[in-house]
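Q: What residues go here?
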């Protein structure tokens, strides 16, 4: 899985806030970038934690894949 998908998964599952969950889906679909999110103060700590978790390979790749399949919008 790529870094963006993993960060989106982490953001979505680490918060109960609907705003953060919507932002995670926007990140997954390319509507917002990681750079943009790092500028939002309330998301900075979560993104750093997500990046750290990814580096340590602590995410279940099957769950990340299921998340991507469920929320990724495919336009034809």
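A:
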């Amino acid at each position: 899985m790529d870094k963006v998908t993993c960060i989106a998964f982490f953001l979505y599952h680490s918060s109960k806030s609907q705003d953060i969950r919507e932002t995670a889906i926007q990140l997954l679909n390319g509507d917002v970038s990681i750079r943009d999110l790092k500028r939002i103060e309330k998301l900075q700590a979560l993104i750093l934690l997500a990046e750290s978790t990814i580096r340590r390979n602590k995410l279940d790749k099957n769950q990340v894949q299921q998340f991507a399949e469920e929320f990724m919008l495919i336009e034809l």
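A: Context that may help when evaluating the design: The two ends are 23 Å apart (CA to CA). Helices lie at 3-14, 18-28, 34-38, 41-55, 61-71.
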